[in-house]
Amino acid sequence: MSSLSIRIDLAPEIRVGPGKIRLLEAIAEHGSISAAGRVLGMSYRRAWLLVDELNRSFSEPVVEGQAGGRSGGGAHVTPLGERLIACYRAIERDATAAAAQHLAGIQGAVAAH
């Protein structure tokens, strides 16, 4: 079974791909960067660096931290972050549909492993 992996180069140093989008989705689901990192098998530092990179890449943050308190801090995906996820997933769906026939045409030539 073939699939597409989409990476969008928005500018020379600004890239968004499946890893960053999965991280944003995990933050939205779990409410924290550290929990999202654990779910995805990455260190908190790696997850935080990716979030920081995303936040510096856009005119406003895609993830915002929440101050700690009795129950601790957390993070949430902003409306811009939600829009980024939705647009990326729409591009991915459309590209997959457009490429399906071509992928099927080469899938049969893949050596069995």
Automatic annotation (TrEMBL):
Domain of life of the native organism: Bacteria
GO MF, any single term: DNA-binding transcription factor activity
Stored Gene3D superfamilies: Winged helix-like DNA-binding domain superfamily/Winged helix DNA-binding domain
InterPro entries in UniProt: LysR_HTH_N (IPR000847), Molybdate_resp_trans_reg (IPR051815), WH-like_DNA-bd_sf (IPR036388), WH_DNA-bd_sf (IPR036390)
Residues annotated as domain HTH lysR-type: 21-82
Membrane-spanning ranges: none
PANTHER family given in the database record: DNA-BINDING TRANSCRIPTIONAL DUAL REGULATOR MODE (PTHR30432:SF1), TRANSCRIPTIONAL REGULATOR MODE (PTHR30432)
The name this protein goes by in its record: LysR family transcriptional regulator
